[in-house]
Amino acid sequence: MKKDKDLFNPAFEGLNLEIKETKKAFKKAKAEPAETDGAGQGDGDVFLEAMSGVIPLPGTRKKIIRIPGDHIRPPHPAPDDKREGMARLHDLVKGAIELDITFTDEYIEGSVKGISRKLMKALKKGEFPVQDHIDLHGLTKKEAEIRVREFLLQSFRRGLRCVLIVHGRGLNSQDSLAVLKANLPTWLTSGPAKKIVLAFATARPYDGGAGAVYVLLRKR
Question: Of 195, 196, 200, 199, which Cα lies nearest the Cα of 212?
């Protein structure tokens, strides 16, 4: 009588042989070098191989664009007529332009350096006869600037020495700002006017007071 283990051999003899063959094939495949034709490469290896000769274009670095929020304010304040005029006056008073300037809410005066005190005193007292005048009421800042420049040049060509510019006090303008008055010293000390204006000063009450200025022109 055969041993007990021999009773099971006929049933599993084929299975055991198949298992042995599979193990031998696995060991052989593991020992052989990997294929190099790309068929067995992963996606990452294939991509790197395909891109090996590519040169990046210059200036293609990623840039982060920040979108400003509603709370962000511009670096500079919006233009303001009065602020602009006062800034110009500040430069005049500091001597950026060769004139002596005095400016308050009610009074304004200026003169080229070297003008005699006697001449300036006479102008402030209204002792020079006013030979012509213009009224800037109702004009915008730009319109007023053009009108002042044209008026001064025409007066100089005519040989006039003292003229009057009525700029108003800004009582009827927005926020009661005397925009024209604040910018007037700039117009009188820049461009063509700079060469023909000797001095200016707030007018006497009977000629418009704080709402007007006398302008003394050079001789032709």
Answer: 200
Q: pLDDT-derived band of residue 9, with 50, 70 and 90 as boundaries?
A: low
State percent of the chain over pLDDT 90.
39
Phi first, then psi: give them for residue 174, nearest 5 degrees.
Answer: -60, 130
Residue type, 104: T
Question: Cβ distance 219 to 135 under 8 Å?
Answer: no
**Residues contacting residue 161 through CB under 8 Å, at least 6 positions apart:** 128, 131, 216, 217, 219
DSSP codes of every residue in 94-160: HTSSSEEEEE-SS-EEEEETT--HHHHHHHHTT-SPP-EEEE-TT--HHHHHHHHHHHHHHHHHTT-
Q: Which CATH number fits domain 81-217: 3.90.1150.10, 3.90.226.10, 3.30.1370.110, 3.30.365.10?
A: 3.30.1370.110
DSSP string, 81-94: HHHHHHHHHHHHHH
Cβ(216)–Cβ(128) under 8 Å? yes
- pLDDT greater at residue 118 or residue 49: 118
CA distance readout (Å), 206 to 126, 128, 147, 209, 210 = 9, 14, 23, 7, 11
